[in-house]
Amino acid sequence: MRKNSIKNTRVNGEVMKELSNIIRNEIKDPRIHTMTSVVSVDVTPDLKYCKAYISVLGDEEAQKETIQGLKSAEGYIRTQLARTVNLRNTPQITFVLDQSIEYGVNMSKLIDEVNKNDTEE
Fold this sequence. Notes:
Layout: H1 6-25, E1 36-43, E2 49-56, H2 60-72, H3 74-84, E3 92-97, H4 100-120
Parallel strand pairs: 2-3
Antiparallel strand pairs: 1-2
Protein backbone atom coordinates (compact mmCIF):
# COMPACT_ATOMS: atom_id res chain seq x y z
CA MET A 1 0.00 0.00 0.00
CA ARG A 2 1.47 3.35 -1.04
CA LYS A 3 1.50 6.31 1.35
CA ASN A 4 -1.09 8.40 -0.52
CA SER A 5 -3.27 5.62 -1.86
CA ILE A 6 -7.03 5.64 -1.51
CA LYS A 7 -6.88 2.78 0.98
CA ASN A 8 -4.35 4.61 3.17
CA THR A 9 -6.47 7.78 3.07
CA ARG A 10 -9.53 5.76 4.10
CA VAL A 11 -7.63 4.06 6.94
CA ASN A 12 -6.36 7.46 8.17
CA GLY A 13 -9.91 8.84 8.22
CA GLU A 14 -11.34 5.84 10.05
CA VAL A 15 -8.56 5.80 12.65
CA MET A 16 -8.94 9.56 13.17
CA LYS A 17 -12.71 9.25 13.68
CA GLU A 18 -12.41 6.39 16.17
CA LEU A 19 -9.46 7.96 17.98
CA SER A 20 -11.33 11.21 18.56
CA ASN A 21 -14.37 9.23 19.74
CA ILE A 22 -12.24 7.27 22.23
CA ILE A 23 -10.51 10.40 23.56
CA ARG A 24 -13.77 12.32 23.89
CA ASN A 25 -16.04 9.63 25.35
CA GLU A 26 -14.06 6.82 26.96
CA ILE A 27 -10.98 8.25 28.69
CA LYS A 28 -11.63 9.59 32.18
CA ASP A 29 -8.12 10.93 32.91
CA PRO A 30 -8.37 14.37 34.58
CA ARG A 31 -5.13 15.47 32.89
CA ILE A 32 -6.77 15.36 29.47
CA HIS A 33 -8.38 18.72 28.71
CA THR A 34 -12.02 18.70 27.61
CA MET A 35 -11.25 20.79 24.52
CA THR A 36 -8.95 18.22 22.93
CA SER A 37 -9.35 17.30 19.29
CA VAL A 38 -7.59 15.06 16.80
CA VAL A 39 -6.49 17.26 13.89
CA SER A 40 -5.06 14.57 11.63
CA VAL A 41 -3.69 11.04 11.66
CA ASP A 42 -0.87 9.51 9.60
CA VAL A 43 -0.85 5.70 9.56
CA THR A 44 2.18 4.11 7.92
CA PRO A 45 1.43 1.91 4.88
CA ASP A 46 2.35 -1.26 6.80
CA LEU A 47 -0.18 -0.32 9.57
CA LYS A 48 2.46 -0.63 12.30
CA TYR A 49 2.80 2.99 13.43
CA CYS A 50 0.50 5.98 13.65
CA LYS A 51 1.14 9.66 14.36
CA ALA A 52 -1.88 11.41 15.85
CA TYR A 53 -1.75 15.20 15.74
CA ILE A 54 -3.61 16.58 18.78
CA SER A 55 -4.86 20.13 19.28
CA VAL A 56 -5.66 21.40 22.77
CA LEU A 57 -7.54 24.64 23.34
CA GLY A 58 -5.89 25.97 26.48
CA ASP A 59 -2.66 27.25 27.94
CA GLU A 60 0.72 25.56 27.60
CA GLU A 61 0.37 23.70 30.92
CA ALA A 62 -2.94 22.15 29.81
CA GLN A 63 -1.34 21.08 26.54
CA LYS A 64 1.57 19.36 28.30
CA GLU A 65 -0.71 17.59 30.77
CA THR A 66 -3.01 16.43 27.97
CA ILE A 67 -0.12 14.91 26.01
CA GLN A 68 1.15 13.20 29.19
CA GLY A 69 -2.32 11.83 29.91
CA LEU A 70 -2.69 10.53 26.36
CA LYS A 71 0.74 8.89 26.46
CA SER A 72 -0.10 7.13 29.73
CA ALA A 73 -3.44 5.92 28.29
CA GLU A 74 -1.85 4.77 25.01
CA GLY A 75 -2.31 1.06 25.76
CA TYR A 76 -6.00 1.48 26.57
CA ILE A 77 -6.53 3.64 23.48
CA ARG A 78 -4.81 1.06 21.28
CA THR A 79 -6.94 -1.74 22.74
CA GLN A 80 -10.16 0.20 22.11
CA LEU A 81 -8.98 1.07 18.60
CA ALA A 82 -8.37 -2.62 17.89
CA ARG A 83 -11.94 -3.41 18.94
CA THR A 84 -13.57 -0.74 16.79
CA VAL A 85 -11.36 -0.64 13.68
CA ASN A 86 -10.84 -3.95 11.89
CA LEU A 87 -7.21 -3.76 10.72
CA ARG A 88 -4.61 -6.46 10.19
CA ASN A 89 -2.32 -4.71 12.69
CA THR A 90 -3.32 -2.17 15.30
CA PRO A 91 -0.83 0.68 14.95
CA GLN A 92 1.38 1.89 17.77
CA ILE A 93 0.20 5.47 18.41
CA THR A 94 2.50 8.47 18.86
CA PHE A 95 0.78 11.65 20.03
CA VAL A 96 2.13 14.92 18.62
CA LEU A 97 0.96 18.34 19.80
CA ASP A 98 -0.32 20.33 16.82
CA GLN A 99 -0.28 24.09 17.31
CA SER A 100 -1.32 25.11 13.80
CA ILE A 101 -4.80 26.26 14.89
CA GLU A 102 -3.34 28.38 17.68
CA TYR A 103 -0.78 29.79 15.22
CA GLY A 104 -3.54 30.65 12.74
CA VAL A 105 -5.61 32.45 15.41
CA ASN A 106 -2.55 34.43 16.49
CA MET A 107 -1.75 35.43 12.90
CA SER A 108 -5.37 36.46 12.34
CA LYS A 109 -5.22 38.72 15.42
CA LEU A 110 -2.00 40.31 14.15
CA ILE A 111 -3.53 40.95 10.71
CA ASP A 112 -6.64 42.49 12.28
CA GLU A 113 -4.42 44.71 14.44
CA VAL A 114 -2.46 45.93 11.40
CA ASN A 115 -5.69 46.59 9.45
CA LYS A 116 -7.12 48.50 12.43
CA ASN A 117 -4.00 50.70 12.60
CA ASP A 118 -4.15 51.38 8.85
CA THR A 119 -7.78 52.55 9.00
CA GLU A 120 -7.04 54.89 11.92
CA GLU A 121 -4.29 56.73 10.03
